[in-house]
Amino acid sequence: MRKLIFVVLGLFLVVGCGKYNEKDAYKEVLDRVNSLSSYELKGELLIYRGEDAYTYEVSVAYQKEDNYRVSLVNKVNNHEQIILRNQEGVYVLTPSLNKSFKFQSDWPYNNSQIYLLERIFYDLKNDEDRTLTKENDTYVFSSKVNYANNKELVKQKVYVDNSLKVTKVEVYNEKEQLQMSMTFTEIDEKKSFEEDYFQLEKNRSEEKTETTMSEIQSIVYPMYLPVNTYLTSQDKVKLEEGERVILTFEGESPFMLVQETATVASTLETDMVYGDPYLIADTIGAVTDYSVSWISNGIEYSLVSENLSTEEMLTVASSVSVSAITK
Questions:
Q1: Is residue 95 a contact partner of residue 73, using CB atoms and an 8 Å limit?
Q2: Residue 263, SS3 per DSSP
Q3: What string of pLDDT tens digits covers the 327 residues of the chain?
Q4: Is residue 268 within 8 Å of residue 218, measured between CB atoms?
Q5: CATH entry, 19-203, from 3.40.50.790, 3.30.360.10, 2.50.20.10, 3.80.10.10
Q6: Angle formed by the axes of helices 117-125 and 22-34, to 10°?
Q7: DSSP 192
Q8: Contact call for residues 128 and 47 (beta carbons, < 8 A)
Q9: Cβ of 248: how many Cβ atoms within 10 Å?
Q10: When you count CB atoms within 10 A of the terminal residue's CB, does the N or C end of the chain come out lower?
Q11: What is the pTM of this model?
């Protein structure tokens, strides 16, 4: 009789908690991710800014050691940018303009990354207070995150199905408000890549499809300004190709915002940047201690300040972007 009770109790625990208990589920999925020598995944990324939502089609390729390719396509304007990491360095490439930034950066190891499996589980591994709950047929892991340039992002939820594949990741702020969501639609854990797949030249576009402008038709102003900071001058300059607008802000937190019409380079141009790639609402920017640079809707932006913190520069830069997909 006692033996029968133990058997029934064991079956109850299995049925009640799913195929794995917390310890086993965590270990199994972590071992699975760590064992991957390559993978390709696809999905949709949503970034929330107040009532706005910016949507990207995401494609990620990974190959040991240190080879990454992340393609992000803005679904509003079909603008594609690619983050590459290979033995030569870290790049952000805009194929349609034939331009790239080369970074002196530890990306992706210096920040949490919502679309890279090993970085998602690195955060889980490093949070001893992580939790696991079961929602129907899905395991939900929760842990702290480390987005160095955005301290508002503090928590992630990682959704894993019964086959131990990640289906979705959500990132929240301290108020438990959803800030980012990555839904995985395809994951190939045995993907093989051509030898030059992660090289910069391989990822440039032969056809330049970007629509460029000869003049700035509408100046875009930041929707956010630091306290006691205000616009003091606005200058427009004619260039050999296109125009440049310089907005100067003074007060307690002075900065300069430059807007310039983007041009398509005849050969691949690469600029050196001592900073990191950063996703600024509708585009990938280059972030340094004193500047933020990005391209959006045919305009190249550069925000420069010796007074603003990196986090505050990014807040101003994000408020300049206006191409949300939903409201």
A1: no
A2: coil
A3: 444 443 333 433 333 445 666 667 788 888 989 899 999 999 999 999 877 888 999 999 999 989 999 999 998 888 899 999 999 999 999 988 888 999 988 999 989 999 999 999 999 999 999 999 988 889 999 999 999 888 899 999 999 998 889 999 999 999 999 999 999 999 999 899 998 999 998 887 655 555 566 788 889 999 999 999 999 999 999 988 889 999 999 999 999 999 999 888 878 888 888 888 998 877 899 999 899 999 888 889 999 999 999 999 999 998 886 543 333
A4: no
A5: 2.50.20.10
A6: 140
A7: -
A8: no
A9: 14
A10: N
A11: 0.86
Which is nearest to 112 in space by CA: 100, 127, 99? 127
Distance CA 155, CA 35 (A): 25
Is 171:153 a contact under the CB 8 Å cutoff? yes
CA torsion sign for 124, 128, 130, 133 is: positive
In three-state secondary structure terms, 99 is strand
Say which amino acid occupies 100: S
Q: Hey, what CATH topology would domain 229-320 get?
A: Phosphorylase Kinase; domain 1 (3.30.200)
Domain boundaries, the chain: 19-203, 229-320
Residue 104: both structure tokens together: 């002196």
Phi, psi torsion values for 271, nearest 5 degrees: -105, 140
Determine the Cα–Cα distance for residues 35 and 32; give it in Å rounded to an integer: 5
CA angle 35, 37, 42 (to 5 degrees): 100
